[in-house]
Amino acid sequence: MPAAIVRCHWPGNDPLYIKYHDEEWGKPTHDEKKLFEFLILESAQAGLSWITILRRRNNYRKAFANFNAKKVAAFTEADFKRLLNDDGIIRNKLKIRAAISTAQLFLEVQKEFGSFYNYLYSHMPDGKPIVNHGHKLVATSPISDAISKDMKKRGFKFFGTTICYAYMQAIGMVNDHIAGCSFK
Fold this sequence. Notes:
Endonuclease III, domain 1
């Protein structure tokens, strides 16, 4: 008989949340497109619940050129207006402007560091992900403080330390699955 699947409690019974938990959250990625995607999604989430954004993820994919940073960086005022009228995404003027700016800054960081991944992991101890083994859930860390501070200096918006830490979890820089979780 197969062992029972144990999960962190936060996905509850929502199938979309469970799929995200099981297949993505806490799993390291080197994929630049995925790193950009989560920058856009996590920034859109500021002040909202993650499930709100997760449910609109496909809409964001369509609205933001399948998360192609070069295409988003070239968005025009007409694209901005199109996004403001797209009811499939969060239609916040500041967040939409920030997403376009984020694409431009993402490309600058890639150019400077060779990849966005290299930039992010330049902040990590030994350049490796952190696997937390405690049961204490946190919303920030000294590393998320440092990354968000540096990104703010570079011009990124909607990326404070709490959003940064959630981003780190989403892309697997930090694995915060609870002890005993089948997906740790």
